[in-house]
């Protein structure tokens, strides 16, 4: 049974806590995912992707049921409670995003949370970092196959100021050698539409987004990510209702106008040295 304090630490809004408590989960579906999550704790991405329930609300219950398992792993590693709970609170954050997008209780990104529940991702200040091993299929410049790096992720929790980014990167430089010394890291990577060259060239050069994106050296071949630009800017999907989207900011206007002009937003790859 999840306590009110645990719901708070997991980042649940009051609405989502009430919805979670009112939901009647499928015990078979919940147990199946919970068993898979427990088996993956500490495997850092080496386990196969779990099979998720059709109803993502059952996934929420499985995550709640396995909080003690991932918390135990964090404790055994010596990871401070503050960082442990801040990382697991992405569950509540994703529920809030789902409510903004769809207007109700659910977890569109239930597949994403598995990385937090196996001990692979940590929230360190403004940014999140996923510890992973570079493969021959997905190389990173200057990094050997089998070497470990950290992938940068940008939660929707406020401004992306240079000062907050600097502080977060410094936390990452200290965190991983201390708590994962067997996986030394010297490179951080990013895969995001925020380093689309068109975005970086057409936003004001003193904007937080541009300053953030230009920290990373591009590499590899970008991939089309039209929906990513729409979703992360407006929290909706599709391009059928462009004229109905808000146009209050420079970013909103840029995203819509490029699509109307026949352009395609892309997600690019970048890296920086820690």
UniProtKB/TrEMBL annotation:
Residue ranges of domain N-acyltransferase N-terminal in the record: 1-119
Gene3D superfamilies tied to this protein: 3.40.630.120
Residues passing through the membrane, by range: none
Pfam families tied to this protein: GNAT_C (PF18164), NAT_N (PF18082)
Sequence ranges assigned to domain GNAT-like C-terminal in this UniProt record: 121-272
InterPro entries in the record: GNAT_C, NAT_N
The protein, known as: Acyltransferase
Organism annotation: Kribbella karoonensis
Lineage of source species: Bacteria, Bacillati, Actinomycetota, Actinomycetes, Propionibacteriales
């Amino acid at each position: 049974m999840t306590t009110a304090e645990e719901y708070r630490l997991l980042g649940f809004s009051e609405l989502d806590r009430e919805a979670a408590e009112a939901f009647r989960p499928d015990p078979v579906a919940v147990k199946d995912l919970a068993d898979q999550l427990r088996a993956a704790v500490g495997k850092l991405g080496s386990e196969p992707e779990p099979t998720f329930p059709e109803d993502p609300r059952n996934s929420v219950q499985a995550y709640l049921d396995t909080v003690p398992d991932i918390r135990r792993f964090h404790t055994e590693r010596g990871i401070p409670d503050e960082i442990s709970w801040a990382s697991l609170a992405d569950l509540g954050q994703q529920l809030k995003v789902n409510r903004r997008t769809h207007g109700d209780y659910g977890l569109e990104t239930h597949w994403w949370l598995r990385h937090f529940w196996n001990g692979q991702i940590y929230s360190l200040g403004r940014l999140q970092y996923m510890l992973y091993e570079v493969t021959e299929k997905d190389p990173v410049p200057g990094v050997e196959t089998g070497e470990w790096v950290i992938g940068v992720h940008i939660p929707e929790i406020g401004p992306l100021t240079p000062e907050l980014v600097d502080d977060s990167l410094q936390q990452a430089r200290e965190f991983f050698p201390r708590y994962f010394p067997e996986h030394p890291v010297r490179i951080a990577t990013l895969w995001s539409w925020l380093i689309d060259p068109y975005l970086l060239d057409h936003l004001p050069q003193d904007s937080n987004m541009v300053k953030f994106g230009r920290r990373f050296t591009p590499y590899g071949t970008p991939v089309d990510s039209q929906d990513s630009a729409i979703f992360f800017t407006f929290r909706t999907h599709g391009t059928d209702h462009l004229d109905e989207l808000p146009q209050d900011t420079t970013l909103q206007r840029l995203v819509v106008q490029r699509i109307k002009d026949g352009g395609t937003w892309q997600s690019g790859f970048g890296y920086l040295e820690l």
